[in-house]
Amino acid sequence: MEDIYDAQYVKGVFDRCSDRYLTFSLLCSFGFTERWRRQCVAAMPHMGVPSAHGYDLMAGTGEVWPHLLKHFQSISSITAVDISSGMHRLAMQRLHAHRAHRINFVEDDVLASELPSDSADFVISTFGLKTFKPAQHVQLASLVARVLRPGGVFAMIEASDPKGWPLRPLYLFHLKVVLPMIERIFLRGAQDFAMIGTYSTNFGDAAEFAEMLRGQGLDVTFHRFFFGCATGVSGRKPVH
Ligand SMILES: C[S@@+](CC[C@H](N)C(=O)[O-])C[C@H]1O[C@@H](n2cnc3c(N)ncnc32)[C@H](O)[C@@H]1O
Fold first, then answer.
1. Sheet with 230-236, edge to edge strand ranges
2. Does the pLDDT at position 192 exceed 70?
3. Are 170 and 227 in contact (CB under 8 A)?
């Protein structure tokens, strides 16, 4: 049995999806992913520094950067971390070449990376939580707490299981049946986007991750977006 949470397995999934990821996520979420990225950025508290530097973890092809740079004009640089070479290549060559002077892309497993302590004014992550299992979420929470400087801020969002929402069965049908079918018929893919659906339904929501961040001493607010179809966290590392 393959471990779908093994870093190399996850890398394979995203390397194979990278060239179609942006279109697929936009169309198949009916534009919601873009709206949720924007809402995630808006949920991040103010940074309070004139020239901010921070991390975009599980950055993909840099989908959140336009929202981030527009909302926080004080950002001078972003270090993006992603394990997928495909996503990296696409991000820097095709999509954001004009922003290259403000972006430093590190191709690495976030959980194995050695980002320096107290080095970030902000940490953001959009749709990068689902490919981790709970033990890895604990590692991620500890990383976020370690790399933020005191007073530094964070926001993260992930597609979630909208428990209790009357239309939940329809949403799950879309994720588990419709998306894999679209991939099979139109993309003739290796069911990689279907794997993204599996990660999403396994994830649940960000409530447990919020607790893990609190356990690391961070001030955390938990957010639900569109009936819980996405959930997120935002907050600050206290200044002691
Ligand atoms: C669903 S995509 C999200 C991309 C982007 N942030 C967005 O808003 O769409 C998840 C990304 O997480 C990356 N990823 C998964 N596990 C990782 C790990 N252990 N270290 C670094 N990146 C990872 C994948 O390569 C993929 O690009």
1. 103-107, 75-82, 52-57, 120-126, 148-159, 230-236, 219-225
2. yes
3. no
At residue 115, the pLDDT reads 96
Pocket test for ligand 1, best of 6, 14, 140 (most atoms within 8 A of CB): 14
pTM over 0.90: yes
Query: How is domain 7-236 classified at the CATH fold level?
Result: Rossmann fold (3.40.50)
Which amino acid is residue 120, in one-letter code? A
The answer on pLDDT for 5 being more than 90 is: yes
CB of 195 within 6 A of ligand 1: the answer is no
Which DSSP string corresponds to 136-155?
Answer: HHHHHHHHHHHHEEEEEEEE
- Residues 6 or more apart whose CB falls under 8 angstroms from that of 122 comprise 44, 47, 52, 54, 55, 72, 75, 148, 152, 153, 154, 155
pLDDT (average), residues 230-240: 96
